[in-house]
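Quick check before the chapter quiz. The format below is the same one you will see on the exam, so make sure you can read both the input and the output lines.
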Amino acid sequence: MNTKLTYMREGSMTLAIFEEIERLIEYIPIDSGILSNCKLSKGTTMDSQFHFQDVDGVATRLGIIEVGRNTVSLKDVVKLFNKFLKDASVEEIISKQWYRQIQNISRSDLPLRNLLFDFCLAALDGDILDAKLYLTHSLYLFGLHRRLTQLLSVILNEVSLESDKEVRQLLTLLAQITEPNNIDIYFDVDSNGFNKRYIIYLNELQKLTPIYNKEIQKSKKLKLVDSE
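Here is the expected output.
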């Protein structure tokens, strides 16, 4: 049996792939007491490389890590999430069993995925206090995977990561797969349009489009020509 085919399914990030990416987080030195206050250990940056062991070779076979590589950084992990989140569904980032239990207990059809969407919007807007609150609720009510929660907590508590391109892309992709069907609640009557956070999200979403990236590259080339 082809192991890779066992784990893969067309158009979606499998749980196996996601778990392998999450496992890499274990190799990043993170100081964590309260889960919402995780930070990189002293002297560690987003680009710091750390040794990891792909003992069973699953990460290599799934194409998560190239053959022969044995180091990983936080930036590598974020990039991997970005790569596979583009084809992911919300069910692949939560504990479905836990989510169903919460829904049964509350006997509510409330869209709890809104919690993670609102976390992403608050984080993109730089509102750390709001983001921490939504992240905590996303873990305990929505069933967000614990390791992913830890990664997102590090992003919140490391000021240097706030404007990082890959980090903002991660937050945008997570927001995209958890965006509620009813977006009227993000409409600001006073400004006759969407509120600030939702506009920031829309701007970040635009950056993910190929057309936008082509225009940016074209602009850079024109500036380079003008400077010569």
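If your answer matched, good. Residues 3-224 form one domain.
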